[in-house]
Amino acid sequence: MSPSKPDPPLTNLSAYCDRIPGARRNARTHPSTLTRWCTSGVKLRDGSRLRLRAVRVGSRWMTTETWFNEFVVALTAAHVAPAPAAGPRTPTERLKASRAADAELRSRGM
Question: Is 30 within 8 Å of 21 (Cβ atoms)?
């Protein structure tokens, strides 16, 4: 039997507040911000939500170093990725797509 990897230690969310710069100079991120990231998540460009993985222990939310780092990496990657195409298609693009779909259906005998 191989030795199992030890579980990472759980840490209170307030321990991570100093690692994220606040919105104002010399401010720290409030613990309620991290709690919101656990419960509601952060809305991403594609409309999905990214949540900080955490567990509830008594009256406190706790996370691990690994979970926190995964959240930061995923959040950074989501905001670095190119934005989805903006706006609806133009009338010309819609007409071309409609004609192409019509031609495809006719070629299949539908």
Answer: no
